[in-house]
Design the sequence.
């Protein structure tokens, strides 16, 4: 509305009659709307919604435009769609037709009255139809220059389950594309000079391009801005700060970052717990901050941003940081680690203890903190979402919890590899390096395998039995998770694939090391590793010499479970 007021644009009332032979009134309505949108500013439009398309024979609109009426008629006259057009310049209420602006009336008021007159005329015409289905409310134009009606018409509420079904069908199409590609490779090997080979390749390339676009479009439908998560925290911060007697300012950034709706909903409670922890544990009171030379008001920061194929959500504060010595003493007191070993642990290793169940450094138990329940739940939720949580702390200055999450849970790009004839996969964005190694380069320290790679000692993890002596066919897949690097010892690299993640029933497979399965185009079953669980189990068994020979993570019982899971997935047990 302000656009019409400030630019003093004439307002026209348009009546467009549809051609009697037009069989697509709905398309005609949209075409007319597009033409008018380009010509000027739509102040009112009727009908807004069309329950019965066949009943629509006339379109009316109020348009603020500088276009010449004859030129406007020429643009709107579409053969086969619009048969007749009437364009009338709307006079101001109470003015003679030849006088658009009264001497004692401002031009802004004139434009506003013209718009209201148009809305009133269209409302009266709509009421005269006597049909409740076609009757629509013509709302007064908003101050931003657009009516609410056309904007609302572009919004469609769809149950999330329907979107999930479409996403699942896209996943099946990706499996079909993989089957098509496999068949094309076999055809090329058998008939390298057949002229049909090039036509098949072109058809496959076209189908793959369209499917990629479809996949991205469906993914975007599921994406929602992180702002939907962040907007619930101002009140939480205010209430928690009041309960703790602290002065806290909330700073938000990256609210426009998109994230999968399912992941976003699951993050509400973990982020809320981190926010409460930051206020109760991290930020000091006004007196303490003043003594430390800080502003009396503490700052709590929530930020979100993209990093590769992941979304990072940070919960940080400018408080006193984590007391590493207190964590070290608590870990020794609880028997988590010995006193001598605790002194050798790095600060990063000590900070990982705060995610253990029941671990708390709070001196007092309150309604907000001190119960030892929370950070382990945060970590469990992130692992379930195929993500991770890490923490950075600077004594006396700040603490930042960093949540790393995949953009979506349904489809991932992965590196495939074999261990003992079984096919595994890890997300491509978690792979830092791939290297070839011989058995002689691997050394055993304290019962665990390590090797030197680029001037650093890399801890190795095996998913299978130790290699036989003299076997040099080893590949090392260096994976990074939550700042920790591990080397997966694999027998063979099998390439890169786009995988559709399918869940397995826990009655079939209870191992936390496997986050899901996928099926390739040729019917092979792929087990997708949960790197968070791999790193956690590796850390847990670090001091358990002999728990599994040569650093093996999978006991024989779990290996038998994997065989059963593969059989179930191949037989259709994956859901």
Sequence:
């Amino acid at each position: 509305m302000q656009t019409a007021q400030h630019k003093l644009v004439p307002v026209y009332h348009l009546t467009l009659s549809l051609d009697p032979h037009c069989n697509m009134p709905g398309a005609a309505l949209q075409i007319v709307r597009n033409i008018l949108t380009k010509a000027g500013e739509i102040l009112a439009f009727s009908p807004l919604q069309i329950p019965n398309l066949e009943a629509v024979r006339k379109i009316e609109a109020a348009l603020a435009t500088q276009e010449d009426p004859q030129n406007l008629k020429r643009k709107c006259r579409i053969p086969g769609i619009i048969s007749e057009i009437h364009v009338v310049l709307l006079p101001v209420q109470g003015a003679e037709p030849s006088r658009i602006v009264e001497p004692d009336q401002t031009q802004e008021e004139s434009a506003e009255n013209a718009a209201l007159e148009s809305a009133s005329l269209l409302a009266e015409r709509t009421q005269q139809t006597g049909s409740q289905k076609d009757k629509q409310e013509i709302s007064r134009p908003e101050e931003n220059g657009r009516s609410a009606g056309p904007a609302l018409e572009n919004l469609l509420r769809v149950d999330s389950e329907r979107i999930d079904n479409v996403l699942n069908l896209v996943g099946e199409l990706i499996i079909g594309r993989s089957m098509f590609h496999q068949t094309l490779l076999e055809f090329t090997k058998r008939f390298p000079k057949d002229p049909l080979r090039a036509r098949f390749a072109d058809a496959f390339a076209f189908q793959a391009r369209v499917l990629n676009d479809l996949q991205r479009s469906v993914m975007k439908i599921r994406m929602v801005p992180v702002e939907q998560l962040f907007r619930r925290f101002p009140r939480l911060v205010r209430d928690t700060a009041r309960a703790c007697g602290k002065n806290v300012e909330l700073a938000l950034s990256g609210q426009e970052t998109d994230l999968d709706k399912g992941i976003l909903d699951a993050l509400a409670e973990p982020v809320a717990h981190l926010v409460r922890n930051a206020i109760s544990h991290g930020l000091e009171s006004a007196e303490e901050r003043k003594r430390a030379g800080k502003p009396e008001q503490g700052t709590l920061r929530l930020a979100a941003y993209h990093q590769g194929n992941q979304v990072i959500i940070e919960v940080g504060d400018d408080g006193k940081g984590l007391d590493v010595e207190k964590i070290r003493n608590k870990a020794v007191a609880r028997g988590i680690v010995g006193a001598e070993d605790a002194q050798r642990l790095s600060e990063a290793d000590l900070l990982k203890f705060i995610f253990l169940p029941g671990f708390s450094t709070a001196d007092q138990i309150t309604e907000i903190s001190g119960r030892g329940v929370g950070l382990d739940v945060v970590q469990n939720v992130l692992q379930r979402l195929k993500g991770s949580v890490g923490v950075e702390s600077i004594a006396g200055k700040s603490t930042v919890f960093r949540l790393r999450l995949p953009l979506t849970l349904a489809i991932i790009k992965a590196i495939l590899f074999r261990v003992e004839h079984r096919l595994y996969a890890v997300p491509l964005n978690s792979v830092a390096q791939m290297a070839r190694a011989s058995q002689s380069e691997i050394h055993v320290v304290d019962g665990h395998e390590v090797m030197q790679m680029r001037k650093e000692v890399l801890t190795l993890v095996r998913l299978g039995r130790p290699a036989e002596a003299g076997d040099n066919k080893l590949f090392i897949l260096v994976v990074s998770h939550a700042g920790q690097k591990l080397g997966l010892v694999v027998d063979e690299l099998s390439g890169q694939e786009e995988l559709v993640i399918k869940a397995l029933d826990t009655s079939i497979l209870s191992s936390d090391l496997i986050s899901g399965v996928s099926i390739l185009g040729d019917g092979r079953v792929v087990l997708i590793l949960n790197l968070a669980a791999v790193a956690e189990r590796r850390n847990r068994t670090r001091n358990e010499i002999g728990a599994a020979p040569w650093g093996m993570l999978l006991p024989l019982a779990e290996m038998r479970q994997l065989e059963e899971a593969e059989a179930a997935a191949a037989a259709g047990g994956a859901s």
